Amino acid sequence: MFNVLFICTANSARSIIAEALLNNASNGRFQAFSAGSAPLGHVHPKTLEVLKGAGLSTEGLRSKSWDEFSGSDAPHMDLIITVCDAAKGEVCPVWPGHPVTAHWGIEDPLRNGNEEIRPFREALRYLENRIRLFTELPMEKLEHLKLQQHMDEVAALHHEAALSK
């Protein structure tokens, strides 16, 4: 099983939607989480409305800090995906295990103070398409990501050993 963390600054809409979508589509291959650098402390009501309208469970969804996932007692992350451009540019914590990172820029449904449902539905649709493509990857491609991660770690250890001589 691969652990995937979706990050968006406020962790109230896009990252929450991605978490719910991937957990729904995982077929036991993935465990999704979400977090933010400056979480609002609550999931936006329109996010919950859109998820429920799509037939997705909202149970257990909450706005949380990325600090929950950077400590030694946090679940090991295999992949971290930022879903907003602001989070992409932020200085992230050092993630244990050096997970693979990616950026899926999704426009903020709350841009310019917008409170309409349509942008939340658009975010859901864009994330749904990306998650569908991601979950259709053959396991050997995902194993390659793990292999690449391990090889990068070995290279870093080799480099550190060479420097200490």
From TrEMBL:
InterPro entries noted in UniProt: Ptyr_pPase, Ptyr_pPase_sf
Domain Phosphotyrosine protein phosphatase I: start-end pairs: 2-137
Signal peptide per UniProt: none
Keywords from the UniProt entry: Arsenical resistance
A GO BP annotation: response to arsenic-containing substance
Top-level taxonomic group: Bacteria
This protein's name: Phosphotyrosine protein phosphatase I domain-containing protein
Protein's organism: Hydrogenovibrio marinus
